[in-house]
C-alpha cells in the first residue's frame, strides 16, 4: 500500500480534476450529455498535468472508476424524475458498488508513486518525439472517451428510465451484479496467490483455472450489463448505447490480453502451454493434455 504522501498527491489531483469538471459544467452551456463530456475531458487534462508533473502516468489509473459514479450522480440530479425511479436507483447502486470496490482494490495494491504501469513507458517510447502527445491521447484521453461511452447507458436510464421494472431489468441486474462479483473474487484470488507465489509460477486456481483473465471478463461483462439497462429504456438508441461496451470488449480482447499474455510468456516458460489449456477471457472448462 502506498504511503500517505503518495495518496495525498492522488487526493489533491482528483479534487482538482473534479473542481475543473464542475467549473466546465457551470461555464459551458452545452446540452446533455455533451456538457458532461466536456467536463470529463477537462478533468482528464488536469490529471494529465499531475501525471507529467509527478512523472507517473499511473496517476490516471483510478480515473477509470472514480468518474462514472460522479457522472451517475450528475445525471440523476439533472433529471429529477430519476429520483423517483427504482431503475435509476438500482443502476446508481450498481455503479457505486463497482466503483468503490475497484477504487479500493487499486488503492490497497498500488505500490506508490515510485511505480508506474509497465505499459505506459512502452506507449511513450514507441511514439518517439511525440511521447507527450501519446501520453495525453493514448493513456489519458482515449480511455476517458471509452469510459464515457460506456456510461451513456447510465445517462439513458436517468433521462428515460422512469417506467416500471421488468424482466429485462432483472437480467441486466443479474449480469451487472454478477460481473462485479466475478471481478471482485478474481482480484481477491489473484492477490492471495501473489502473496505466496513461487518464481515462475502461474495462477491456475479458482476462477483463474477457467480463464487466464477472469478480472477482465468481469470488467467487460459489467459494461454489457449497463448497456442492457440502457436498451431496456431506449431500444431505439442502440447506436449510441452499444459502442461503449463493444469498445471495451475490443480493447481487452485485442490489446490488453495480448499484451499481458506476451509479457507472461517472456517471464514464465510454461505460460505458452497454459494459454493452450485455459481460455483467454470467457470462463470455460480447461482443456487438459
From TrEMBL:
Keyword Metal-binding in record: no
Transmembrane segments: 7-28, 63-82, 88-109, 130-158, 170-194, 238-259
UniProt entry keywords in alphabetical sequence: Membrane, Transmembrane, Transmembrane helix
This protein's record includes keyword Signal: no
Species assigned in the record: Oceanococcus atlanticus
A GO CC annotation given for this chain: membrane
InterPro entries named among the record's database cross-references: UstE-like
Name of the protein: Uncharacterized protein
Amino acid at each position: 500500500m502506498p504511503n500517505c504522501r503518495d495518496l495525498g498527491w492522488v487526493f489533491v489531483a482528483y479534487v482538482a480534476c473534479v473542481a475543473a469538471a464542475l467549473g466546465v459544467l457551470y461555464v459551458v452551456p452545452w446540452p446533455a450529455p455533451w456538457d458532461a463530456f466536456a467536463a470529463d475531458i477537462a478533468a482528464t487534462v488536469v490529471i494529465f498535468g499531475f501525471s507529467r508533473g509527478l512523472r507517473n502516468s499511473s496517476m490516471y489509473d483510478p480515473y477509470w472508476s472514480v468518474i462514472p459514479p460522479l457522472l451517475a450522480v450528475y445525471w440523476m440530479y439533472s433529471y429529477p424524475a430519476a429520483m423517483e425511479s427504482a431503475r435509476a436507483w438500482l443502476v446508481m447502486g450498481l455503479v457505486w458498488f463497482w466503483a468503490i470496490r475497484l477504487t479500493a482494490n487499486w488503492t490497497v495494491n498500488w505500490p506508490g508513486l515510485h511505480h508506474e504501469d509497465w505499459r505506459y513507458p512502452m506507449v511513450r517510447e514507441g511514439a518517439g518525439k511525440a511521447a507527450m502527445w501519446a501520453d495525453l491521447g493514448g493513456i489519458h484521453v482515449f480511455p476517458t472517451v471509452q469510459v464515457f461511452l460506456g456510461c451513456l447507458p447510465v445517462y439513458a436510464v436517468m433521462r428515460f428510465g422512469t417506467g416500471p421494472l421488468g424482466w429485462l431489468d432483472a437480467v441486466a441486474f443479474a449480469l451487472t451484479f454478477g460481473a462485479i462479483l466475478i471481478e471482485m473474487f478474481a482480484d481477491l484470488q489473484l492477490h492471495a496467490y501473489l502473496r505466496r507465489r513461487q518464481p515462475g509460477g502461474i495462477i491456475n486456481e479458482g476462477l483463474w483455472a477457467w480463464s487466464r483473465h477472469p478480472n477482465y471478463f468481469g470488467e467487460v461483462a459489467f459494461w454489457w450489463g449497463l448497456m442492457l439497462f440502457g436498451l431496456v429504456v431506449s431500444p431505439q438508441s442502440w447506436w449510441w448505447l452499444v459502442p461503449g461496451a463493444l469498445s471495451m470488449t475490443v480493447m481487452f480482447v485485442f490489446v490488453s490480453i495480448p499484451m499481458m499474455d506476451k509479457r507472461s510468456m517472456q517471464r514464465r516458460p510454461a505460460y505458452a502451454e497454459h494459454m493452450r489449456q485455459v481460455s483467454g477471457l470467457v470462463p470455460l472448462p480447461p482443456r487438459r493434455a
